[in-house]
Amino acid sequence: xxxxxxxxxxxxxxxxxxxxxxxxxxxxxxxxxxxxxxxxxxxxxxxxxxxxxxxxxxxxxxxxxxxxxxxxxxxxxxxxxxxxxxxxxxxxxxxxxxxxxx
Length: 102
What we know:
It is a single chain. This protein has 102 residues and is mostly helical. Helices cover 77% and strands 0% of the residues. Helix 2 packs antiparallel against helix 5. The model has no long low-confidence stretch (mean pLDDT 94).
């Protein structure tokens, strides 16, 4: 594989910090940014936590609504973690793509 083709492959696969933050902002409570960044297990956990919290809030007529605090706290902490997750993911992609050309 030529260097141009290898670089193009990396550019196609790398993850965007902007896209990650947009997903975090609009769909972060269901873990969309984690699915995008290649972390499906924690993305599913976030999705399940939001679904369980929604059901419990509805069943308890809002009494257990304070559980949204947990979802919100995870959402806010992810705002600080996203740059590192993106950098790590892109490093793994670069290692895989550029090492395969040897």
